[in-house]
Amino acid sequence: MVGETPFTVYNATKSGLLGFTRSLARELGPDGIRVNMINPGWVMTEKQLRKYVTEDDKKMLLQVQSLKFLVEAHHVSPVMLFLLSSAAGAVSGQNLVVDGGRIFQ
Q1: Sign of the four-CA dihedral 97, 48, 61, 5
Q2: Which one-letter DSSP state was computed for residue 33?
Q3: In this structure, what DSSP letter does residue 69 have?
Q4: Active-site positions?
Q5: 13, exposed or middle or buried, with CB in 10 Å at 0-12, 13-18, 19+?
Q6: What is the pLDDT of residues 37-91, one digit of tens each?
Q7: What is the dihedral of CA 75, 46, 65, 34, to 10 degrees?
Q8: Assign residue 85 a region: left if phi > 0, alpha if psi is -120 to 50, beta otherwise?
Q9: Which residues partner with 40 through β-bridges?
């Protein structure tokens, strides 16, 4: 959604998944099946922090995100639980972005 380089194939794949989600939602909706997508931003997992994330990366994220904290797995899992719950009974074909407001930069 940000279109960063050098992640062209990754970006194209995520875009394709959004189209796939929306098409499946229309196709399966008449059978009462909801289809949604969770699109997490850069989640600070233990592996990410150990192998990939630098202090400069953290500073950049905190600068460009609307919310001034790093996104962690515990921010994403409640979104999934919401979509699985009856509270989301009328939600289908949606892309819920969990990225601290980064794509709105």
Answers
A1: negative
A2: -
A3: S
A4: 10
A5: exposed
A6: 999 999 999 999 999 999 999 999 999 999 999 999 999 999 999 999 999 999 9
A7: -40
A8: beta
A9: 98
